[in-house]
Structures are given as structure tokens and as C-alpha cells.
Amino acid sequence: MKNNPLDFTGKVALVTGAASGMGLAAAQAFAEAGAAVALADFREDIVNSEAQKLAAAGHKAIAIRCDVSDDAQVEAMIDRTVAEFGRLDAAFNNAGVMARIAPTGDSSREDWDRVIGINLRGVWSSMKYELRQMQRQGSGAIVNNASVGALTGNPGIASYIASKHGVVGLTRTAALEYIQHGIRVNAVNPGLIDTQIARDVVSGDEHAYHEIAKNVPIRRAGRPEEIASAVLWLCSPGASYIVGHALTVDGGMTVV
Q1: What is the CATH number of the domain that holds 23?
Q2: How many Å apart are CA 126 and CA 124, to the nearest integer?
Q3: How many structural domains is the chain composed of?
Q4: Active site residue 209
Q5: Rounded CA gap, 78 and 93, in Å?
Q6: Domain membership of residue 167 as a residue range
Q7: What is the per-residue DSSP string for 175-231?
Q8: Which of 48, 195, 219, 240 is deepest in the core (most CB within 10 A)?
Q9: What's the pTM?
Q10: Model confidence band, residue 201 (pLDDT cutoffs 50, 70, 90)
């Protein structure tokens, strides 16, 4: 019988933005696949609760409070993960926020700095310290959460779109820099996924949200677990020849 490529027994995974949505789904999936998991999020109470649930179910899991826009907190996040579990084999840099909706000419510098600081600089900062640890080990896999917004424009959310284009460019560059060190870097481009951020785009208008979902070729929004499956595969030996790729998981949104 062949080994299961999605068996992460003995491995250590880190997920940012792990308190809910795609991040939480990925953390749960890593734990269920056998990994020890560090769940990081700035929402300390929530991420502590989720880590405790995983631990109560028999998994190895810790919670770390981290604002990824703060380099010192990011460095401490990696240090804590390695101190607790001894290494870092897989990372899903998922933490992100949505822009406040406004035409480009009416958007604020404050909002630009907030979105770029978390969505792009936060990914860069997380990768910086993850890569250093993985380089010491001589192995590792990183997946960055971009978006179908990295493939096109979208009126009203310029900073978000710019940040996600940047994540893909950063992913491709780091992938070329570190593959010779045994580290694979890739990204995912989720489409409409059933998360709070997706609802924020339509200001919580459930009717508008469901109308958008009906227009996806698959006729529904994606589930966070479907992104988690893609993330685990990209981190697994089954994706060993995939380097610098941004995998679009969107139910066909960008096909039409």
C-alpha cells in the first residue's frame, strides 16, 4: 500500500489568520492529518478557544497572538512555534483584511496602509522568518493566500486588489530564491468562499451575497474546507514538483 501523501504525522504547521474561515479550516485539516499546529491570529480569545478544541480532541495545537503587520510579533510567532514543536515544516500565510469600499480617488491613505500592511507586508514578514527557519532545516513548504483578485481588477477595493497581486509576485520570486534550499513556495487564489470577508464585500447584504454566489459557474460559494484541501496538497509530497504556482480555486469564476 502506498504512503498517504497527505499524512503530516511528525510535521509542524503554522497558520496565520487561524481564528476563523480558511485559516481555521486549514489548521483543523493539518491537525487531523497528524501535524502539530500553531494557530496564530490577533483575536487572542478566539484563537485560544480553537486551539483548545483541537487539543481536547487529541491533537497537538497551540495558539499565538500575532498581528502580522508587526515584524516583532511575527518573529516571536516563529520563535514560539519552533520552541514548542522543534521545527516548522509547513506554513499557510492566510491573515488578511478587506479594503473599505471606495473608488480609488476617494480611498484613504489610512486604509491603503492598513490593507497593504496586513495583506502584503504581513505575508512578506511571515515568509521572512519562516524561510529562515526552513533554510536551517533544509526543507519546508509555504502557501500564501492570494485571491482571484490577483488575476483581475475589481472596482472599489483597489488596495485589496493591489495587495493580492503583490502576494503572487512575492510568491513567485521567493519560490525561485529558495527552491535550491529545499523549500517550495506557492499560493492559492480563492474565489468566492463562505467567509466573513466575502460578506464584507457586499456590506453584509445576504441577498447580494447569494446573487453573486449563484453566478459562480458551480452555482455556490466555496467552503473554507475546500481551500484547506488545496493548501494541504500544496504542502504535501504529492505537490513536490509544484514551485511558484498560484493555484486558482474558484468554482470556475475566472474561466468565464
Answers
A1: 3.40.50.720
A2: 6
A3: 1
A4: no
A5: 12
A6: 12-192+227-248
A7: HHHHGGGTEEEEEEEE-SBSSHHHHHHTTT-HHHHHHHHHTSTTSSPBPHHHHHHHH
A8: 195
A9: 0.95
A10: confident
